[in-house]
Design a protein that fits this description.
Blueprint (H helix, E strand, L loop, with lengths): L2 H7 L15 E12 L2 E9 L9 E7 L6 E7 L10 E9 L2 E11 L4 E9 L5 E3 L15 E12 L2 E10 L3 E9 L5 E9 L10 E8 L2 E7 L5 E8 L2 E9 L6 E8 L5 E7 L5 H7 L1 E2 L1 E2 L3 E5 L5 E5 L7 E12 L3 E9 L2 E9 L5 E8 L7 E6 L4 E5 L13 E5 L9 E9 L2 E6 L3 E6 L9 E7 L3 E11 L3
Parallel strand pairs: 1-19
Antiparallel strand pairs: 1-2, 2-3, 3-4, 5-6, 6-7, 7-8, 9-10, 10-11, 11-12, 13-14, 14-15, 15-16, 17-18, 18-20, 18-21, 21-22, 23-34, 24-33, 25-30, 25-34, 26-27, 26-33, 27-28, 28-29, 30-31, 31-32
């Protein structure tokens, strides 16, 4: 970050301090995460001209530990006839030791024309677009599609495979499958999966497709909550068996993932702002990455998700409390515990309460507060931001969805929470996550408390760390 930006943002109460984000301006989708020669690279959709969506470039950052990031020069700019209206999302692979970006170019944004392109590099800093671009310039002839973007590429034996986000008019979202020997000449195979779920939009963005143990995972972003399916893969077709959401909130979108040097599947998502465009422009920044998550399978075959271990290096001062009864229908404030940059691990005994959880970012006069609610009776996990801010230019509501707390039979609910200024991410039992954005206006909206409704509960343990900046 430049010194000028450091000065500009030093008093910004909303700007996250330990989540990865650009030095300034607009950011959205994570692009092309990859491990290469001892370093982790993360690209992202970026507008260098301001804190608003337009003029899409690929921003670029590098890290040695997945926590602390150095910003590098912009990797891709909209410079050619085939991408003059935007360098959209994609992925990065290593092709016979050569770093290669595969991305969607936009030659005409108004006409919604989308093509697929590649660029290569010798040093991961300077990127050269191929003279064969666009490598795919036409949709499959037999399909009437609603979109054609966001390539995700992997290699099996001697072939490269690519999936593209799409949709079929009058049918639903679709994921298209291609094959290549050299990343330049591509053969269309078929739709790997066509949606039949009326809840989902008819265009699926930013697909990811990968194997975990003996199962395959398909992830899509259908203009709403990010959906995943667990299933099998045969004859170039994906057969879904279980469906879920990568995140139950409305802020998390367009995730991208990679295999790291330890063999883990690591995933980032874009955390959208939930305040007006005018406020974002005035602030000078918009968008932030989620904390990196490890995606895995539990022994029962369900999808698991947890924050990566490397985040522990940010832990500062620590406080631990145990065996605290939580009275019914009240907020039990914790003495001498407050902050807007916290990691919290809390384990609850459910008791006979219908709901349990925490109150965070609470002001002394109760004018601002946010509730993290595990509704055991209704099987729902949510973040209630209706009272999170006195500002009028902020989207407020209850963000969450169904979650089966009875999946875990030991009677405990474990919440792993990251609070970073305007970001709240809540992991539950390493099985689900809900994310929200909050924008308290009071400088003293820092309080932390416990809640139980319609019955009593007990806090078994809580660990709280004050987190360092990156």
């Amino acid at each position: 970050m430049s010194h000028a930006n450091e000065v500009h943002f030093v008093n910004d109460q909303q700007r996250p301090a330990f989540h990865m984000m650009p030095p300034a301006n607009w950011m959205n989708d994570p692009n092309g995460p990859i491990y290469y020669k001892g370093e982790y690279h993360l690209f992202y959709q970026y507008n260098p001209a301001g804190a608003f969506w337009a003029n899409m470039h690929w921003g670029h950052a590098v890290s040695k530990d997945l926590v602390h990031w150095e910003h590098l020069p912009i990797a891709l700019t909209p410079s050619e006839s085939y991408d003059k209206d935007g360098v959209f999302s994609g992925c990065t692979v290593i092709n016979e030791s050569e770093p290669t970006i595969i991305y969607t170019g936009i030659p005409d944004l108004e006409k919604k024309i989308e093509v697929q392109c590649i660029a290569t590099s010798k040093d991961m800093i300077n990127w050269e677009k191929s003279n064969k671009n666009p490598i795919i310039d036409a949709l499959p002839g037999e399909l009437e599609t609603t979109g054609f973007r966001d390539p995700f590429v992997w290699k099996e034996e001697d072939n490269w495979y690519m999936i593209l986000g799409s949709g079929i008019k009058g049918v639903g979202g679709a994921i298209l499958l291609y094959r290549s020997k050299d990343l330049r000449e591509w053969e269309y195979i078929n739709p790997i999966y066509i949606g039949e779920d009326e809840e989902l939009e008819n265009m699926w963005e930013c697909p990811n497709f990968f194997k975990l143990e003996d199962k395959y995972i398909l992830v899509v972003s259908p203009y709403g909550k990010v959906v995943y399916w667990i299933g099998s893969y045969e004859n170039y077709k994906f057969i879904p068996e279980k469906k879920g959401y990568i995140d139950l909130g409305d802020s998390y979108y367009a995730p991208n993932s990679f295999i790291d040097d330890k063999g883990r599947r690591i995933m980032w998502g874009w955390l959208k702002e939930q305040r007006s465009k005018e406020v974002q422009k005035a602030a000078g920044w918009s968008g932030v990455m989620s904390v990196p998550r490890e995606i895995f399978l539990h022994k029962d075959g369900s999808l698991g998700m947890k924050p990566i271990e490397e985040l522990k290096v940010l832990r500062g001062e620590h406080k631990c409390l145990s065996d605290i009864p939580i009275s019914a229908d009240s907020t039990n404030l914790l003495d001498n515990v407050q902050g807007d940059r916290l990691e919290i691990i809390a384990e609850f005994e459910k008791g006979d309460a219908s709901s349990i959880g925490l109150v965070v970012r609470k002001s002394p006069d109760n004018s601002e507060y946010t509730e993290i609610i595990c509704n055991i009776a209704e099987q729902n996990l949510s973040i209630n931001t209706k009272n999170s801010s006195l500002a009028k230019e902020v989207d407020k509501g209850v963000f969450g969805d169904c979650y089966n707390f009875n999946d875990d039979t030991d009677g405990l609910v474990k919440l792993h929470i990251f609070i970073d200024k305007s970001v709240i991410e809540v992991f539950v039992n390493e099985r689900q996550c809900v994310t929200a954005r909050v924008y308290p206006t009071c400088g003293d909206s820092l309080g932390l408390g416990l809640l139980a409704w319609e019955g009593k509960a007990r806090l078994k343990d809580i660990d709280i760390w004050w987190m360092k900046k990156i």
